[in-house]
Design a protein that fits this description.
The complex is a heterodimer of chains A (about 375) and B (about 350). Chain A is α/β, with parallel strands linked by helices and about 375 residues long. Chain A has twelve helices and nine strands. Chain A has a nine-stranded mixed β-sheet, sandwiched between helices. In chain A, helix 7 crosses helix 8 and helix 10 runs parallel beside helix 11. The model of chain A has no long low-confidence stretch (mean pLDDT about 90). In chain B, strands 2, 3, 4, 5, 6, 7, 8, 9, 10 and 11 form a ten-stranded mixed β-sheet that branches. In chain B, helix 1 packs antiparallel against helix 2. Classes of the chains: A alpha/beta (about 375), B alpha/beta (about 350). Chains A and B meet through helix 1, helix 2, helix 7, helix 9 and strand 8 of A and helix 1, helix 2, strand 1 and helix 5 of B.
Chain lengths: ~375, ~350
Amino acid sequence: VSLTGAPVLVLMSILTIGLFALVVVIWPRLGGRGARPLAGRFGVLFAAQVALIATLAAGANSYFGFYTSWGDLFGVASQNFTALPAPPLGGSRAQIAVLSVSGLAVPDGDMPAKAGQIQSVTLHGLSTGLSTDALVYLPPQYFQRRFAHTLFPAVIVSTGYPGTVPALVSRLRYPIRLLTGIDTGQDKPMVMIMIAPSPATVDGRDTECTDVPGGPQVESFWAQDIPAATEQTYRVTTAAAGWGAIGDSTGGYCALKVAMMNSDRFSAAVSLSGDYFAPEDGQTGDLYGGSFAFREENNLLWRLDHLPSPPIAALLTTSVNGEDDYRPTLQFVAEAKSPMRISTMIRAQGGHNFNTWNAEIPTALQWLSTHLSVPSV
Amino acid sequence: MRINGKPFIVLLGLVTLALFVLTQVLWRRLSRNGPGALAGRIGLLVGSQVALVATLAAIANASFGFYTSWDDLFGTASQAYRLSDHGAVSSSVNATQLVRSAATAGTAPTTGTVTVSTLTGLRSGITARLRIYLPPQYFAPKAARTDFPAIIVDEAGRPDGAALATGLLTGHGPQHPAVVVIVDTADGSALPCMNIPKGPQGELFWAQDLRTAIAFNYRVNLDAGSWGIVGTDAAGACAASLAIADSGRFGAAAALGAWATADSRGVLPELGEATDPATWLHTYPAPPVRLLLDDSAGPVDLTLGGVVRPPLQVQSTTGLAEPAAVDWLSAVLSTGEGARA
């Protein structure tokens, strides 16, 4: 039974209503004195409450797109990961397998040359052996004859952790926002590769886009495998000037970190409410091979303090009231040195939620449109 | 009262507790038949459930920081923001890493040229001296739009850089046309090869600074298949490590001399075995890389930990010299048909 599917929600709702009715009906029979009626009262109340809370939690999970599978939900930081074998030299195993294509929920949304197209794909990373589910949005220009020989800029779009890829389309609405921006002349066409920060094959572990020593090489998956697979499959540029990354929360940290560490392949990063420190908790496990020094290298403020600032442009968003990363963001801006260019979008208020990011994403897409090398429309 | 403050959560908790106690107290009274008691039961239950759910939601919200004000929750928060746009990075930034520091030697159309330049890595901050050899074919009019492969020779900490450059100009250039970049340092010190935690960022230097500096100054593209690296002794271990662990940037490497037994710069002491090439080959997919290894330090299947699977290709030889390794690389590297960087 799928964790996010309607059957689970319906089943749990029926159970919740049933338990509620049961409590009301058997209420009179539990009114006696003594331990047994008391235990009965506590028991039925408890059962009804648990059922309700579980139902609401499942509903919230489905709405906000935190966990897609039971494995994700119960995924603790296991050190196991699956690495697929590499193809033989000269072999050209497809790095991207298209599972299905769909249009957008707009007028003429099923006409690729007008609304673009969303492709549901599996992306296989050749250098890391990791693979993941992704949604790829190809803008309408990609299907227009005028652009038949154009190489498009490409952007990795990431959810936070936990997060599910479809939420990037249904809640944060990246494709429709980009389409609207292109149609109104504010955005330039770009290919978006929408993912969750940790590849599916790491089984729900929060890897924070780290090249875990002896473990999953998730930074390399972002920096090497995703560009290589995308460049092999779609008409996108191979130049760093045309590659960017954007994400919220953990996805924002990932976008900024991967671009900072791989500025020969990425030139722009947008971190929506991302943090800067290399986290370590029950869901990450030890990501740093037990090395405090290596952990520091994954702390982006430490990097600015101790290493040259890399040649990328970054857009950082936060709010004065409502985000923990407000002060670290100001510190990051203060410590970044040339040639790094930092833009900021700072709101007076707004928490760590879809309202905030929904308000920021249109501007972030405009920023990416002007900071990546793009074909003229 | 703030949505994520303690007082609000405590208040909700007290209401929840009070409703629970009330339920117990009123239980008998609401056990009667009749619409009044029934309505009372339903009302009290609904109230208890709403209070408990609200308490848990407030706790979760406060701990994750989802909604930090009532306006935020109801979507009535100000959408105003201050955007300060500081622009993009200048496109010339990679090219400026390289500064020519001496006159060019050689004659372009006949022997090729060697230019001595200083590279100051943008990302690593590491400074090195480069002797950049351009083959005579580089200057042919019909090659004006052709990209050439690039071969890096790590001579840092060794005295042979100048002699090798002279050799390239005097008939010992690579068999197939390639740009050859001989890397050493003005003070004769060796260069780090991996990113040492809290130390010099060798991988940023070799894989990113050096590659972008050359690609943005010469007709060399950034495709991994166009890039090879040669080293002797510890630098050989370094070359092999770079190609194995960073196959997205290097397509081939040659490790000469006592590379397998040298105090390997290809392993991070801090992270130990996890970064060792043998461990790497056991753990991750074989990279699409060609290696040429001197087997005088031991049989290749031992030196690489016994794991050589396709697409990794390993050739071995004994007593190989650097010019021959450069020749070999010039033959296996692709000229790269990809777009210019």
